[in-house]
Amino acid sequence: MNWPDELTFLNLFAKLYWTGSAQRLIIFERALVLGANFIHFVHKIVMPTIHQLIKKERRKAKKRHKTPALTFGFNVLKNRPKEYSSPFKRGVCLKVFTVTPKKPNSALRKVARVRLTNGMEVTAYIPGEGHNLQEHSVVLLRGGRAKDLPGVRYHIVRGVIDTSGVEGRKQKRSKYGAKKEK
Predict the structure, then answer these.
(1) Which of 28, 59, 110, 147 has its CA 20 to 30 A from that of 138?
(2) In Å, how far are 65, 73, 97 from 61, measured between CA atoms?
(3) Which Pfam families match (predicted)?
(4) Per-residue pLDDT at 162
């Protein structure tokens, strides 16, 4: 097979298998460079055969939750977890400590290890300046990660249950549970 025939074959290949995917475009460019002998190998990378699909059908990718602790509760009577989502969860502080953030930031961020009512144990960020939390404090948790703290996916809600609001706060008071100063 001389070069013009190969090009015709590659054009036919492009019409048959082109879907607009960037990855396939790269593979097709490689096929152009290497010639027609590479086409059959590319075809197997690009899509499965009917027999492969019959043997093992396509699996849908599982959606990963950003806040898995809020996706289920615990049924005490049946002693097993029950799947239902909730915007907040109550928990008890096991340990209150500080962590240093990732580069390029530098600080001592206040966090707490919390055991939730569903039995899970998570690390939660304590927002605002100053707090009154200690071991055995009961807190309310919401979703929302601390961007520069790896593994911290939850925030403690200020001004609820045992957590006091931030004192002296004049703006964004509702986010920090601060009452209006008179």
Answers:
(1) 147
(2) 13, 24, 37
(3) Ribosom_S12_S23
(4) 87
Answer with the one of 12, 28, 55 that is the final residue of a domain. 55
- Which residues fall within 8 angstroms of residue 38, CB to CB, at 6 or more apart? 30, 31
Residue 181 lies in a domain: no
| pTM for the whole structure | 0.67
For residue 62, being part of any structural domain is answered with no
154, with CB counted inside 10 A (0-12, 13-18, 19+), is buried
Residue type, 22: A
Shared domain for 51 and 17, answered yes or no, is yes
pLDDT in tens, 72-123: 888 888 888 888 889 999 999 999 999 999 999 999 999 999 999 988 899 9
